[in-house]
Amino acid sequence: MNPGTFMTLKIDEKVDYGYYLTDGEDRVLLHKTEITEPIEELDEVEVYLIVDHEDRLAATMKKPKISEDRFGWVEVVSVREDMGAFVDIGLSKDALVDNDILPAYVSVWPKEGDKLYCSLKVTKNGRFFTKLATEDVMQENIVPAEGVRNNQAVTGRVYRIIIAGTFIITEEGYKGFIHSSQRKREPRLGELVTGRVVDVKEDGTLNVSLLPFKHEALDEDAQVICDYMEERGGAMPFFDKSDPDDIKERFNMSKGAFKRALGSLMKAGKVYQEDGWTYFKKEQQ
């Protein structure tokens, strides 16, 4: 009997807390919490062998969502920087995605609720580890994007991160790439993101942007300016002729973006400029 294997075992003894099963030589406990359907009238039971929380060989009628030769999406249930991410594989014990195979920067590690495409590896002592899918494995799930147009919204799960950007697979099975210039923050591995198509390539893959449309960006930049002015009591020492480097340092936006945002606020009657300063109009203060 080895952990990580399926076996059909005979019922040897019923006890208050479950059943003892046997292969004719050894016995293993099937605890009542691991029973998924009635077995009282059965002589044999198909089970999956695991190691319980006290490091004893045990049996379960639950089936893992993934196996050594079967990949699947599994949900992250907890993260420890000294170990990695634990994922729910459908058993009473979670499997570990070791920190050695996670991205170098913890900031893009998956968080609880994210999902990873993995297969399962069971050690001789019954520890559950996972293996992240390679590009070749993911390719088996990818289909060419047909009928997709630029600016169309797509939602996908991050499955690979490289220096240049982020790879996602959409709900339809399309492969998308988000260049580092097309985002304000780097998405996490396993995160579900929604963006817009900026290019449909000849091979059927997509280039995707997480940046808002220009008119949406103006609203967002304008809010940044308003938030800053509110912090300063309704005024700021910046106006449409301020130094571009000062604008970049303070607001993290280009002078062009700053002027467009400021112009939209002035057009809306929210602010006015005077002597190199910008002020909220009285009704805005």
From TrEMBL:
<dbReference type="InterPro" id="IPR048587">
    <property type="entry name" value="CvfB_S1_3rd"/>
</dbReference>
<protein>
    <recommendedName>
        <fullName>S1 motif domain-containing protein</fullName>
    </recommendedName>
</protein>
<dbReference type="Pfam" id="PF21191">
    <property type="entry name" value="CvfB_1st"/>
</dbReference>
<dbReference type="InterPro" id="IPR012340">
    <property type="entry name" value="NA-bd_OB-fold"/>
</dbReference>
<dbReference type="InterPro" id="IPR040764">
    <property type="entry name" value="CvfB_WH"/>
</dbReference>
<dbReference type="InterPro" id="IPR039566">
    <property type="entry name" value="CvfB_S1_st"/>
</dbReference>
<dbReference type="GO" id="GO:0003676">
    <property type="term" value="F:nucleic acid binding"/>
</dbReference>
<dbReference type="Pfam" id="PF21543">
    <property type="entry name" value="CvfB_2nd"/>
</dbReference>
<dbReference type="InterPro" id="IPR048588">
    <property type="entry name" value="CvfB_S1_2nd"/>
</dbReference>
<comment type="similarity">
    <text>Belongs to the CvfB family.</text>
</comment>
<feature type="domain" description="S1 motif">
    <location>
        <begin position="151"/>
        <end position="211"/>
    </location>
</feature>
<dbReference type="InterPro" id="IPR036388">
    <property type="entry name" value="WH-like_DNA-bd_sf"/>
</dbReference>
<dbReference type="Pfam" id="PF17783">
    <property type="entry name" value="WHD_CvfB"/>
</dbReference>
<dbReference type="InterPro" id="IPR014464">
    <property type="entry name" value="CvfB_fam"/>
</dbReference>
<dbReference type="Pfam" id="PF13509">
    <property type="entry name" value="S1_2"/>
</dbReference>
<dbReference type="InterPro" id="IPR003029">
    <property type="entry name" value="S1_domain"/>
</dbReference>
